[in-house]
């Protein structure tokens, strides 16, 4: 009897559709002979859907997505400055809503400089770390507001909400991950300025560290962390940090390891109460959409993370290996689908 | 009759003292024959003072500093993890208190890749931009708190406070600066997540932009901005951004342009109601303090910014030129004072 995995696919907007097409082909190919069967449902969500129907993510969409085992997402967001999207915040209403409603408290973002990939650094050294970004709290909660909007007396506030519950669970995840890697963990925050939130993060990391005496623990202010990401990225193994700092660091990390065309991510609910969601770090890039110019590698690597998350280790490893081989052999520009073809060919090897 | 400038000097802690010693020597040398006389008062403030007296910045200190025309600061902060400093937040109590009390609403941080300086990028191209960081609002206001501290039910919040008044004045400063430079201005924020604060920043930039039709205006999310800082830093001319994003971007910019040993900054009250304060971007680096290993260049360039701010254009240009010559001619390691000597020798040229 074969195992059935119900997969919700959200291609989204712009290049999201093109890269997800390749990611799906790779998924189909790698599971063709396996006993696991992926039952896919495609959800048409994003700026495109909003322009057609005025909906971003309905309760019915959410309920239906929630009934799946996992989610594969491309990218969402329309043309910047499109007046018809002025009042739609697709990012908050769709992407962040999914992360919050499905309690994706671990936003997992590996950063690895693959052989053959070239980034902007002259002497990058070996780069292989993972950012464990908190996904359900911090400045992302949407607890903001303004008064006297649009006047010279406007005051606009944003509140970062942090709970010991939320911080502890993601910190524990990061320590467990560090135990399985090189046993080095770096907390990144800004404790000298954000003394309340930062102080709590620091205290919880110190407490959990006491249970992991074999993990070397380090602390960096976020500003200093950006310096080390470009001057000494090899120093990092596992970084644990809040939602906003994690957002910033992972884009920078993506750039340093050869561009966000290669950066995959998982929005994970480790408890398994809700489906986890895998997506490339990059956005919908409307400027190059529909031209087969996008690199589907980040989406394909997100499939590898998805497979790994579902316990399909062999399949995950085959995708990962095929991508690494493809990157190592790169030369010239290829169309989106050509990169998909090459990775699929590599699966056989 | 000579013009008298009353200068408050705060060497601070660690390498702050060593770099300020050189900065003062350069200041003395460049003003030796000029008609302006600097009357200096040295304030002993920082972790050292706290350990001796338990005071961080008394009201009397503040009043006395306020009576000066300008401030030159080295760096403050003790040994990380020093248990005696556990409850002292020197950064908030001293550095940030000065910025807030003296209404330093423009935190000006030039980023230039000098000939001869080498950063981590393989192909940096030309780098010459200025970050105009807001200095008196945002997540730095200290409007945070926590309940049930130290328990598993702790909730710790931090509120970013942003006013149209505060944003408009710094945005106007940035546009004026862009008019005197290459007429390109980039707003950096995270409008898709921090919709209230980000929305107000965007609206005000759009409004002020309408008065400056000759300035090309661009917007980047902070995460994307870090990517461009390492992949295409030449695109930037003037960046205007909030207090926290400015903190992060300027450390990264410092690294990209050859290290924060070269990065100067000004905390400016453009209205002249309060003395402006000039300081290197780097910290007190207790690990290398007292060993004559620190590079005093950032402190010396901060003197150039101070001179420029006081309208002493010729003196500022002489210091700037001497530093640039010194950087271009660098080879081998030199002691802190040797770099000071070299810059002073270059002043004659
Ligand atoms: C699109 C945006 C809301 C999102 C974020 O800030 O988390 C993106 O930048 C990311 O990193 O996944
Ligand atoms: C020391 C710290 C409070 C300060 C800041 O965050 O502003 C520093 O990083 C800076 O950039 O001047």
What's the domain count of chain A?
A: 2
Tell me the series of helices and strands of chain A, N- to C-terminal: EHEHHEHEEEEHEHEHEHEEHHH
Mind telling me the CATH superfamily name of the largest domain in chain A? Answer: Isopropylmalate Dehydrogenase
Largest interface: A-B, 63 and 63 residues
Helix content range of chain A? 40-55%
Strand content of chain A: 15-25%
Summary tags:
23% strand; binds 3-isopropylmalic acid; Rossmann fold; 12 strands; 2 domains; 349 residues; alpha/beta; homodimer; 10-stranded mixed sheet; two-stranded antiparallel ribbon; Isopropylmalate Dehydrogenase; 11 helices
What features would you describe in this structure?
- 2 copies of one chain form a homodimer.
- In chain A, 41% of the residues lie in helices and 23% in strands.
- The first copy, chain A, is of the alpha/beta class and 349 residues long.
- The first copy, chain A, has helices at residues 15-31, 47-53, 59-66, 90-101, 164-180, 195-210, 222-231, 243-256, 297-309, 313-328, 336-348, and strands spanning 3-12, 36-42, 70-75, 106-112, 128-134, 138-147, 155-163, 184-189, 216-221, 238-241, 264-268, 276-280.
- In chain A, the strands form 2 sheets. Chain A has a 10-stranded mixed sheet with strand order 2-1-3-12-11-4-5-10-8-9, sandwiched between helices.
- Chain A contains 11 helices and 12 strands.
- The complex binds 3-isopropylmalic acid (2 copies).
- One 3-isopropylmalic acid sits between chains B (91, 95-96, 247, 281) and A (192-193, 223).
- One 3-isopropylmalic acid sits between chains A (91, 95-96, 247, 281) and B (192-193, 223).
- Chains A, B: Mg(2+) binds at residues 223, 247, 251.
- Chains A, B: InterPro entries: ICDH/IPMDH, IsoCit/isopropylmalate_DH_CS, IsoPropMal-DH-like_dom, LeuB_actb.
């Amino acid at each position: 009897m074969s195992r059935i995995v119900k997969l919700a696919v959200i291609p989204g907007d712009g290049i999201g559709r093109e890269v997800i097409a390749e990611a799906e082909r790779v998924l189909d190919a790698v599971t063709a002979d396996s006993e696991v069967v992926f039952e896919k449902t495609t959800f048409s969500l994003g700026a495109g859907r909003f322009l057609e129907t005025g909906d971003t993510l309905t309760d019915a969409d959410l309920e239906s997505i929630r009934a799946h085992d996992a989610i594969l997402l491309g990218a969402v967001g329309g043309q910047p400055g499109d007046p018809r999207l002025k009042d739609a915040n697709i990012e908050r209403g769709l992407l962040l809503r999914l992360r919050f409603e499905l309690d994706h408290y671990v936003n997992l973002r590996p950063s690895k400089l693959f052989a053959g990939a070239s980034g902007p650094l002259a002497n990058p050294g070996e780069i292989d770390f993972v950012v464990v970004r908190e996904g359900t709290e911090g400045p992302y909660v949407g607890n903001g507001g303004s008064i006297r909007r649009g006047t010279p007396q406007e005051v606009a506030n944003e509140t970062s909400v942090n709970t010991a519950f939320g911080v502890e669970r993601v910190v524990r995840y990061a320590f467990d991950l560090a135990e399985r890697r090189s046993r080095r963990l770096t907390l990144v925050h800004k404790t000298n300025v954000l003394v309340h939130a930062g102080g709590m993060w620091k205290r919880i990391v110190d407490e959990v560290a006491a249970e992991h005496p074999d993990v070397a623990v380090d602390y960096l202010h976020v500003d200093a962390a950006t310096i080390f990401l470009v001057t000494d990225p090899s120093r990092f193994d596992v970084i644990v940090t809040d939602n906003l700092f994690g957002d910033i660091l992972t884009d920078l990390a993506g750039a340093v390891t050869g561009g966000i065309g290669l950066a995959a991510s998982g929005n994970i609910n480790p408890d398994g109460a809700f489906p986890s969601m895998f997506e490339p770090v990059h956005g919908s890039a409307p400027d190059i959409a529909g031209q087969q110019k996008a690199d589907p590698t980040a989406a394909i690597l997100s499939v590898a993370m998805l497979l790994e998350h579902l316990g399909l280790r062999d399949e995950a490893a085959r995708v990962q290996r095929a991508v690494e081989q493809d990157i190592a052999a790169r030369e010239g520009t290829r169309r989106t689908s050509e990169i998909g073809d090459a990775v699929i060919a590599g699966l056989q090897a």
